[in-house]
Amino acid sequence: MPSTTLQWLSLVGIIWLQAIIGTNTNFPTYSSQLKQLLSISQVQLNNLAFASDAGKLFGWFSGLASIYLPLWLVLLIGSTLGLVGYGVQYLYITNQISSLSYWHVFLLTFLAGNSICWINTVCYVVTIRNFFSDREVAVGMTTSYQGLSAKIYANIVDAVSPHKKASAFIFLNSLLPVIVGLIAAPLVREIDEEVTSPKHTRVGFGVMFVITISTGIYAVLSSLQFVTSKVSSLGTLVGILVTLLLPLLVPLSVKIKELQENTEKVRIYHFTMEENTTSEERVENEVKEGEVQEEVGIIEEVGVKLMLRRINFWGCSNISSLVSLSSSFGFFGRLMPSLMYYFYRGKCRISRPASMLAAMVPMSGAFFLLLNKTDIVLYTSTAVIGVCTGAITSIAVSTTTELFGTNHFSVNHNVVVANIPIGSLIFGYSAALIYRKEGHEHDEHVKCMGMECYRNTFIMWGSFCFLGTLLALILHARTRKFFSQKQ
Q: Residues 83, 172: contact at Cβ < 8 Å?
């Protein structure tokens, strides 16, 4: 199969992997049952949520593995870790295992969280290497599908097992990444060289963006109550699966075009040598243009140790509906940075740190808006937070490559995301303490419902987001000269 077709097929495989990789976002759907089975407090439950993020602390193992092991093996290792981590928990929730201690569940959750890093590393490495000149667009677009994970899992559970959601979510968490990993493993591989011309790449990404935006619109609409009340769960699931198959149209069209071109080459094989000479000159000109583009896009390559020394480095009542809403809008948030780069490439545009700053401001306001008890504010704030967190996640990947280069990206990125479990521990533990305090005041069983349980938490999180806004402003000020030179 021609390299160009394989190049686009690798992107499709990455899209499928990203679409099912967000297993940790399903934790709220079965956390209550875990809390009941283990007889644990809210603080201990929050520690389990932290355990999933804590797996990222050892994500750099997957970065090192991607350097020395075949990428398909790294992918299967990640899928297997998730199978063990979530699979044993599923057996426990369904009473197939009689007893499992709190610390057993903690370690299993940690293992499952680490599995995401392995799959993510493969996705990022293949995307950056196969679409190096368009890596910002490719990474942003594929990463956006990770925002759909919770939505996809929720649709499957609603259609297949609506009455046993907790066990169904954990079962899918363990099995679905393995199945998709086995399907995508032959597709997700590094192509020897980037063979697609800039013109064809731009057209291909244009079609991909149309498909991706259509997928996001469908995800948002199918999350709204007035739509779900009229369409069956199975119908919604079929729709989302069809949208995930649509990206195959791009490599399929490329393959058809290549077959047509090969047919034309056979017909004109006996043409004069003069035309052959002209073709060779055209190829030489394209090579020279590619060399000029590479010179313009020179990036400083920074290793892990040097990166750590750089100051720029330190710098609803229905749970499933809220999770689906946040997931759907997170999808658009992840997609927006790559859309902006696609349309304004080569033109004056704001830097990555400035984009982070722009995303932090509305997110800070959204947490304070949650102090209002109305449902419309709850859903609106959830959507805003989903968009902003998705955008920041996508921007962070591109910022890492621009500030520290691509040669050590697989390790560098996993070191950068090690901040996530730290924040998860601090914010989650603080929220649990506030919840327990309010529970003692209102209910002797330490069960708290309503705004009183979370008011102080929203104020605290909003304040931390405001602090993050100031840090993004500092990062923008420090890197402004660097990004202005790149433009």
A: no
CA-based end-to-end distance of the chain: 37
Sign of the alpha-carbon dihedral angle for 43, 327, 74, 180: positive
Select the more confidently predicted residue: 159 or 430.
Answer: 159
Distance CA 484, CA 479 (A): 9
463 vs 485: CA distance, rounded Å: 34
Q: Which residues contact 15 (CB under 8 A, 6 or more apart)?
A: 142, 145, 244, 247
Write the DSSP string, 254-323.
Answer: HHHHHHHHHHHHHHTTTS-HHHHHHHHHHHHHHHHHHHHHHHHT------HHHHHH-HHHH----HHHHH
**By the 8 A CB rule, do 43 and 433 touch?**
yes
- Report the predicted TM-score, pTM, of the whole model to 2 decimal places: 0.70
Give dist(CA 393, CA 302) in Å, integer: 21
Closest by CA position to 432, among listed 33, 29, 22, 40 = 40
Determine the Cα–Cα distance for residues 387 and 251; give it in Å rounded to an integer: 29
The confidence score (pLDDT) of residue 115 equals 92
Instruction: Please check whether residue 93 is in contact with residue 170, taking contact to mean a CB–CB distance below 8 angstroms.
Output: yes
For 101-144, the pLDDT digits (tens) are 889 999 999 999 899 989 988 998 898 888 877 877 888 888 88
Domains of the chain and CATH, by start: 3-270+301-486 (1.20.1250.20)
Residues in the chain: 487
The token pair that represents 191 in the structure block? 């192509």
Distance CA 420, CA 433 (A): 20
What confidence tens digit (pLDDT) does each residue in 301-342 have? 555 455 444 444 333 345 556 766 777 787 788 888 877 777
